[in-house]
Design goal:
The chain has a single domain (5-269), classed as Carbon-nitrogen hydrolase (Nitrilase/N-carbamoyl-D-aminoacid amidohydrolase), CATH 3.60.110. 25% of the residues lie in helices and 28% in strands. It has five helices and 17 strands.
Length: 274
Amino acid sequence: MGRRHQKFHQAMDKLKLAIGQMECIDSFADNLEILLDLMHQASKLDAKALFLPENCLYMRLDKKQLPPYLSTSSEEFEQIKALSMKLDLAVHLGGVGLKTDAGKYNASIFVSPKGELSHTYDKQKLFDIELEGKHSYRESDAYDHGSKNSVLEYLGFSFGQSICFDLRFSSIYENYAKQQVDAILIPSSFVVPTGKAHWHVLNRARAIETQSYVISAAQTGEHKGKHQSFGHSLVVDPWGEVLVDLENKKNTCEAFEIDKAKVLSVRQQMPMHR
């Protein structure tokens, strides 16, 4: 099965999901404990899938050090797969450091309720910044660039995938709009200054321009005092209305529903992508 178009389970018209918000640190064990607890929370909400942020298994706090990389056979994934099967819950890991034969990527991983693990997307736009007289940060020192969009299909719904800094590049989402996906995934770890200025408006813009739901799980908190994340995990409907905003809540999730009829209604009212 190709990575560009992956299908799991039968179709339905409405889908109950959960979005999680985390305060992660530079510890696989601590983050995994939070992640597994969020899976239990999502299951109690009767969600069919849980969507988690970028850096959901490891937050690199020393930017001068390269991050540790996982492989698809890593023990952390085995624990997630086992709990997915037990709870009958899918999990989308928004961004993890993954080493493959092709390179090292900031990658999205999808685990189905059957315990099937798929490497579904690689972040395309890596965050490289150099401010004169201030700090510099090059994500490309740690990861290779992803090269293509990727649509995940689950229970009859299609999800266009992206990660964090991808959010700023409209061409990625123009492609998903043409494919008429039902939802856009933007797992992220925005810092506070850019989050305050741009996070809400960019997420709402992506929903409006694609006429899709936007599901943007985010990091929050101060991460051992070494880094501050903006939080505000969002779910936005195809009309641009914010359905969920987790504000600065830590290590929690909230359920929501996506509805194919809502997507169709918006596209009929405002035909943009014929």
